[in-house]
Amino acid sequence: MTDSRAKTITSVLQEERSFLPSKEFQARARISSLAQYEELRQEASRDPEAFWAKKAREYLQWQKDFTQVLDWQEPHAKWFGDGQLNASVNCLDRHVEAGRGQKTAILWEGEPGDTRRITYAELLQDVCRFANALKELGIRKGDRVMIYMPMVPETVVAMLACARIGAPHSLVFGGFSAEALASRSNDAKAKLMITADGNYRRGSVVPLKNNVDEALRHAPTIENVIVLQRTGKDQQGTWNKEREHDWHELMQKQSDICPPEELDSEHPLFLLYTSGSTGQPKGILHTTAGYLLGCAYTFAETFDYRDDDVYWCTADVGWVTGHSYVVYGPLANAATVVIYEGAPNYPDPSRFWQIIEKYKVTIFYTAPTAIRSFIKWGDEFVEKQDLSSLRLLGTVGEPINPEAWMWYRQKIGQDRCPIVDTWWQTETGCIMIAPFPGATPTRPGTATRPFFGIEADVVDHDGNPVPDNTGGFLVIKKPWPSMLRTIYGDDERYRKQYWSHIPGMYFTGDGARRDEHGNFWIMGRIDDVLNVSGHRLSTMEIESALVSHSSVAEAAVVGRPDAIKGESIACFVTLEGKTQPTPELKTELIQHVVRHIGALARPDDIRFTESLPKTRSGKIMRRLLRDIAAGRQSNGDMTTLEDFSVLERLRHSEEQESV
Ligand code: WTA
């Protein structure tokens, strides 16, 4: 672990502030005391299989009940193996059948201010029609479908329609480039692409369709494209009429009845590509029953969900938080979900708070990076809005610094709303460590304790638990229903990445410590994964993008602490032959990375150097580079550094203009 992370531990150790839920909150909470929490926790850990089986029948509707709960052949799990169900039925039909058809499913607000309110009955109808459209285009059970869409209700329709016919979807966040989209589509061998002409972001149009056009030149498995006209700015001039279909035209001719496929519990629900410690993104595979159970159950308990809540998670559906807590978790509970298309500061930084006031949002879930931006933009944008509807706040995606946590509690929660800091990953499918808001005392900066049935621990290299308040590896010791099943097309990598670092345990890639109260304090990634504004990026992926430029000989990318983004991207680059470092080349390299990966991977700093610091065995000394990027003096052991003079030169380059 790096020195910077050690420093984080010391600072959080001094965090003594502790907050109990208010009496009012507690009185109405689903889990309203530590005793009740403890009772459930013990029940789950005494017999996890019996516990999960009970919850699976409570939270899900089965077309065929299961008799087997868990088949665990490490590292492969099958949950509820002989059961059958359909995720779209669980999110829609069962609510409509229970007479809830008129309940609002989605409250949508476009960035320009256009709005839509969609009931469960309407959503079901749209999903059935779209599922029929998918079938018309030849999509069958098991075929993969790419979704490259903005934050519009149709994205939810597309996901649930795929689920209805058993075609695994693979969403790609709109901030990824054409090249990133093509490589994901090729890895998934997808047959269909669903996109929009564009979407609104900070007043301008993001040209999604252009990216798709470019991607399709290198994505040969895609046979058809469905395009939603969101902005109407694309006049179909560039459309290939053979394979491109207009969303609305396709929908018009479909029946609104589409019997759901009866799918095995382990039928793949979706692939979601995420960054790991190597250059190639990995397709995380989630299956139907276990994933849906995890989302539905954690949504209900962590957010203390009640039927009259208006719930808003600000994550983009292209990330796992959007999958689990914009779509599957809330809809499985028949919740009313707010979806907003645009930027938090458009037309001004009060937009989020206006939305909360307008829709009377009761539960609000966002990322620490957004909270830090709001702090920077100023309290006046918060103070002019009425936030009295809020009763619970959540955060996700990165460690939250105590200052941001306190601001969130005081300014947004008005000292009234509990905060649930939720730790989890694309791989875990759903929330793993988080407070139960009516029971758990919270402290700024800790996600507190594991969810029921989750056996989390902090261990050393050999898998031995470390003493309280000592840093170690965060691991999960028992399989859980919503765990990833494999990396699509690369089971060996799945085994190596998650199950071989510490035998018998799931390796999260995060460092953590546990305090004397049993709270987990997440210290961030211990591998080469960056967390930039809550977005997960691999240093290797950015390095490969850089070295693919003809002027670059070698590149090393590290994270640099950033007050708003958590981490920013610092690149150290050596150049080929006689190439001279120039400001133009810097700009070109930045553009090059954006083209390869997407705007979300835009380097914040590029430094040219004659050589990179390496150990005698040739490994780049990233710890040193991190210290240099952060402007810290390194006091680590430097005896293995190949060329000491390199350090001096790198430090001096800091004084030069940086991008
Ligand atoms: C980090 C996002 C601290 C962590 C749901 C993890 C967090 C990675 C928290 C997964 C939190 C997520 N506190 N760190 N509450 N939540 N992380 O796959 O490093 O995009 O491994 O999933 O985000 O990112 P991913």
Provide keyphrases for this structure.
659 residues, seven-stranded mixed beta sheet, binds 5'-O-[(S)-ethoxy(hydroxy)phosphoryl]adenosine, globular
Structural summary, described in words:
This protein has 659 residues and is of the alpha/beta class. Helix content is 34%, strand content 22%. The strands form 9 sheets. It has a 7-stranded mixed beta sheet with strand order 5-4-17-16-18-19-20, sandwiched between helices. A 5-stranded parallel beta sheet has the order 7-6-8-11-12, sandwiched between helices. It has a 4-stranded antiparallel beta sheet with strand order 21-22-24-25. The radius of gyration is 24 Å and the shape is globular. The two termini are 28 Å apart. Mean pLDDT is 93; it is low at 1-12. The protein binds 5'-O-[(S)-ethoxy(hydroxy)phosphoryl]adenosine (WTA). 5'-O-[(S)-ethoxy(hydroxy)phosphoryl]adenosine is lined by residues 274, 319-321, 396-399, 421-426, 447, 508-510, 522, 524-525, 531, 536.
